[in-house]
Amino acid sequence: MDIKKLVKPNIRSLRAYQAEEIPCRVKLDANESPYGLKVLRSVKTNKYPDPEAKELRRLVAKELKVKTENILHGNGSDEIIYYLITTFGGPVLYPVPTFSMYGIISQSLGEKKSGIPLDEKFDLDTDRFTEAIKKKKPKLIFLSSPNNPTGNSFSSERILEIIEQSKGLVVVDEAYQPFSDRRSFLPLLKKYKNLVILRTLSKVGFAGLRVGFMIADTDIIDEVNKVRLPFNLNSLSQQVALNALQDIKRMQSYISAVKSERKGLFKEMEKTAGITPYTSDANFILFKARDAEKIYQKLLQRGILIRNMSGSMKNCLRVSVGTLKDNTAFLKALKQVL
Ligand SMILES: *Cc1c(COP(=O)(O)O)cnc(C)c1O
After folding, report:
1. Interval between CA 274 and ligand 1 midpoint (Å)
2. What CATH number matches the domain at 54-246, 3.40.640.10, 3.40.50.300, 3.40.190.10, 3.90.1300.10?
3. pLDDT at site 15
4. Could you report the per-residue pLDDT of 262-302, keeping only the tens digit for each?
């Protein structure tokens, strides 16, 4: 029996997200934080988790200075992206290159999608967006700012222009906002009913928990809540996330450490002949090199795992900011390889 023939055509032609475990000594490929907590908490395993994650949402609301009812919790922000596309459908619009899940989820759900190339500075090309908004009338536009994998924030004026032009929802994915000195779009939620903001704990030390949030108008939250699975966030993750947020100073000190390491790493990369790093507002650095595939393989032979981006960006590689020790090991190996 050919299972492939049973599968819906949009799923058949889809390629699964590449998240295989590659053995390595220094892991700098997935934009994780090098800092985190080792925790084991007494959680009642026989009871279902709080379906509304009330305590957690209350604390997040306080931190973000929004109301609890304006927050929806997800099993990572990936799940929320899934829910948004399930609820509103396509066409879905996003710049390219960007976070791959916007396209993958659109396709799995059988929704139309299109990618609008970024300009030469990796900023939003507003002319092309304006044209695409008019032509395609997207229900959803996803803008990751700072953008993964380019690392830069989009210019706020351009994001605003898109929010104002769009008759659909504009989702500003702020997964990397904690590493940026730019202002968050959170204060603009009151002004723009079609604005949705995504946040995650994944890049600030808690990728293992799978905890993400959507912040939006209650009309949007109420609709998305209809498709949210009731117990999408397990008790352990809720409890550990709660503890992490109660110790916000610690989390902030981790974020500061990563920002300071990013500065040092960038300086060293700039001085390295044969590569060109791009400035970053996130916890990773994108860089260009002549033979990206070879560099990727040779680093891996030395135990250093980074991300080969050359599939979507010619000759580009992405390295996550690690500890001083990790970054030093990476730089040493990189210099040998080059
Ligand atoms: C990593 C990443 C996410 C995924 O976050 P999770 O909360 O781990 O699902 C979302 N958006 C962008 C732009 C990312 O880079």
Report:
1. 30
2. 3.40.640.10
3. 73
4. 999 999 999 999 999 999 999 999 999 999 999 999 999 99
Residue from 77, 96, 176 to probe ligand 1 pocket by mutation (most atoms less than 8 Å from CB): 77
Cα separation of 303 and 26, whole Å?
Answer: 6
Closest to 83 in 3D by CA, of 232, 305, 240, 297:
232
Q: What is the pLDDT of residue 310?
A: 93
pLDDT of residue 33: 83
CA 222 – CA 164 distance, rounded (Å): 23
Of 69, 65, 37, 64, the C-alpha closest to 53 is 69
- How high is the pLDDT of residue 40? 58
What's the token pair of residue 2? Answer: 């050919």
5-32 burial by CB neighbour count: b if 16+ within 10 A, else e? eeeeeeeeeeeeeeeeeeeeebbbbebb
Please report where in the chains the tokens 């970054």 appear, as a residue: 327
Ligand 1, residues at Cβ distance < 6 Å:
31, 76-78, 99, 144, 148, 173, 175, 200, 202, 207, 212
The tokens describing 114, both together, are: 């299109």
Q: What is the pLDDT of residue 44?
A: 75
Residue type, 255: I
Distance 196 CA to ligand 1 centre (A): 15
Q: How far apart are CA 158 and CA 171, in angstroms?
A: 14
Asked if the 19-34+252-337 domain carries CATH number 3.90.1150.10, the reply is yes
Give me the amino acid identity at 296. Y
Q: What is the mean pLDDT of each run of 10 residues along the chain (338 residues)?
A: 74 70 86 72 77 96 97 98 95 97 96 97 97 97 98 98 96 98 96 97 94 96 91 93 92 95 97 96 97 96 96 95 96 95
> Where are the chain's structural domains?
19-34+252-337, 54-246
